[in-house]
Amino acid sequence: MKDISKELGISITTISFIVNKKAENKISKEVIKKVEDYIEKVGYKPNSSAQSLRTGKSKSIVFMVEDISDPFFSAIAKQMEEIAFRNGYNIIYCSTENDRERTLELISLFKDRQVDAFIITPPENFEKDLKNLIYEEHQTVMVFDRYFKNFKHNYVILENFEGAQKAVTGFYESGRRNIAFIGIHSELSPLVERHEGYLNSIGAYNLAAYELFLKFNEVKTPAGMSAIRNFLKGNPGIDSILFATNNLAITGLRVMREKKIKIPEDLAIISFDERDVFELYSPPISVIAQPISELAKELINGTLEILASKKEKKYFFTKALPGELIVRESLRPVKKLSSNP
């Protein structure tokens, strides 16, 4: 800016206003045009590191999820990125692998880089760390996909309890009466609430519950397949399965193909979270689909609103969006409804 000032004979303060888009109603249009034309001619760009040191803002937001390669999270990231870019922000992506220590290390790294906000899907056992990040370190944090009931914070989530109810109702109305649930051992709110929604509906229909829970790190492994294989063998009467995550469903479908289990004749299937493979699978798999576009918009717009807000700290941005039951061939009704209640 000193070079521009010397070349054009205009004060550094005036040039700073123009470069940082704060010149409106302060500096004449002629001067603004003169400076902008010269900047374009010489290809000047502000030094982002210097700006960050001066303003305390890096114009960057971190999106921390358990696995950024998961199609659900990557789709959310893509749509957020476009909105953030239009508002002058960049999104940084990283994966926590649902590991607390890894998450803490990443947060420490990004705090050193003065990121403006964190959008986080918290890993297991992260409640105290998150509370400290918000209330003691005064970081701007938006929690995604899960939340904690013991303290107030910003979040955007799916209505998981209601989603599980829709799935069980879908099974029941298609004639199924022996409905199983396969989930993950976890205290994370979406997994807990999907299980609770299942139990609530099973109880309302006066049906027996059939349940299997895997460890998080078993889902995509031979151990996970073995557990599902044994579950099916030990419960030959079940006629339908609600999978709590798409990765669980994919593991389960591998077992069913191996065992030559017919879908939906032998087992009807519904999975939480859409994947392209579910629509392309033969037969196509029914899902409780999350509203990706709406979630992405609420996440990034809510975060930007918080960053720009001058409201008191007791204000929190909270959204819970409904999922949609997409019925495909895996939920085709049985020919004859069971005579059981």
TrEMBL record:
The terms under GO molecular function for this entry are: DNA-binding transcription factor activity; transcription cis-regulatory region binding
Q: Where does the secretion signal sit in this chain? A: none
Q: Tell me which PROSITE patterns the record gives.
A: HTH_LACI_2
InterPro entries (UniProt xref)? HTH_LacI, LacI/GalR-like_sensor, Lambda_DNA-bd_dom_sf, Peripla_BP_I
Q: Which residue ranges does the record assign to the HTH lacI-type domain?
A: 1-55
UniProt keyword annotations, A-Z: DNA-binding, Transcription, Transcription regulation
UniProt xrefs under Pfam families:
LacI, Peripla_BP_3
Say yes or no: keyword Transcription regulation present: yes
What name appears for this protein in its UniProt entry? Answer: Transcriptional regulator, LacI family
What is the organism field in this record?
A: Salegentibacter flavus
